[in-house]
Amino acid sequence: MTKADIVNFIFERVGLPKTEIQKIVETVFDTMKEALVEEEIVKISGFGVFTVRNKGKRVGRNPKTMEAVEIKPRKIVSFRPSEQLKQVIQKKA
To answer: What average pLDDT does the chain have?
Structure first.
């Protein structure tokens, strides 16, 4: 699902102008991005939690040459689904 799909889905359900919906969706994602850049926790009730984690440096291997390569430390975004989301997904399985 893309942002355009989300805009169209909301348009069909709510009926606001697409330009307004697009601004709202962009604002929501921009707000989430800003919070994650500041390493804040983004918790969406009934959906899940987005956090930024630090991964330390480690040694990896080039699969072609099997040569050891140092992987530098970095930050990653982690998502943990809520119990409600897990239950909804399990019901659909």
So the answer is: 95
By residue range, what is the domain housing residue 29?
Answer: 1-38
- Helix-, strand-, coil-residue percentages of the chain, each rounded to 5: 45, 30, 25
Structurally, the chain folds into a number of domains equal to: 2
**What burial class does residue 7 get, using C-beta atoms within 10 Å of its C-beta: 0-12 exposed, 13-18 middle, 19+ buried?**
buried
Together in a domain, 32 and 13: yes
Residue ranges in the chain assigned as alpha helix (H): 3-14, 18-37, 83-92
The CATH number assigned to the domain holding 79 equals: 4.10.520.10
pTM comes to 0.81
Domain co-membership, 45 together with 73: yes
pLDDT in tens, 58-89: 999 999 999 999 999 999 999 999 999 999 99
Three-class SS state of 40: coil
